[in-house]
Design brief:
Order of helices and strands: HEHEHEHHEHHEHE
Strand content: 5-15%
Distance between the termini: 53 Å
Number of strands: 6
Number of domains: 2
Helix content: 40-55%
CATH class of the largest domain: Alpha Beta
Largest sheet: 6 strands, parallel
CATH superfamily of the largest domain: P-loop containing nucleotide triphosphate hydrolases
Strand order of the largest sheet: 3-2-4-5-1-6
CATH topology of the largest domain: Rossmann fold
């Protein structure tokens, strides 16, 4: 087996120097990031993956032994893989499915508002509970979009959360006021979805 040519050796040398500079720059940047605190995180956008990414964060926290609280504002009338999986973590996770389906399922605005208010009261209690390290408010953006909860009240409560608590909010059409208050915002962009080609929601993928 022959060794690298002179030209390849020069390419490798330049590559190593480039990577060394990048590593040094990265280390300088990381050294300047010293603050540690809880974040207000928003997952929004028309693409799939908002709740999925949030539950990935839940799993990370559970892996570190960090207690997690979850309130599902819309989902609730059907079973989901994430809820069944999280039951195996016992006392580390509390999952409250407070919704009654999407508003076009109930066709009862007053009932939807009552369900949203009940879920929000549970959410506020979790946020105030010092035992939790992360609270996931799944599909909260949906009820805010339909004005089922006072936006100012919600944003004020989330902005005043305990310093060490992470709060994750999911759902499309996040309100600008919530985005402004958040520390981290990710927008999922729809590129292609099988539903448009007649493929129904499937276990393990959508629920």
């Amino acid at each position: 087996m022959t060794g690298p040519t002179g030209a390849e050796e020069e390419i490798n040398r330049r590559h190593n120097e480039k990577m060394a500079r990048r590593k040094a720059a990265r280390q300088r940047m990381l050294a300047s990031k010293t603050e540690e605190r809880g974040l207000l995180i928003v997952h929004t956008g028309t693409g799939k993956g908002k709740s999925t990414a949030a539950f990935g964060m839940v799993l990370r926290c559970l892996g570190h032994g960090m207690p997690v609280g979850i309130v599902q504002f819309v989902k609730g009338v059907w079973g989901s893989g994430e809820r069944m999986a999280l039951e195996r973590f016992g006392d580390l996770v509390t999952c409250r499915a407070m919704g009654e389906g999407f508003t076009w399922d109930t066709q009862d605005r007053a009932r939807d508002i009552a369900a949203a208010r009940a879920a929000w009261e549970v959410a506020k209690a979790m946020i105030a509970d010092p035992s939790y390290r992360l609270v996931l408010l799944d599909e909260l953006n949906i009820v805010l979009r339909y004005n089922y909860l006072p936006l100012a009240e919600v944003v004020a409560a989330l902005s005043a959360k305990p310093r060490d608590l992470h709060v994750v909010v999911t759902g499309r059409n996040a309100k600008p006021e919530l985005i402004a208050a958040a520390d981290l915002v990710t927008e999922m962009t729809l590129v292609k979805h099988p539903f448009r080609n007649g493929v129904k929601a499937q276990p393990g993928i959508e629920f």
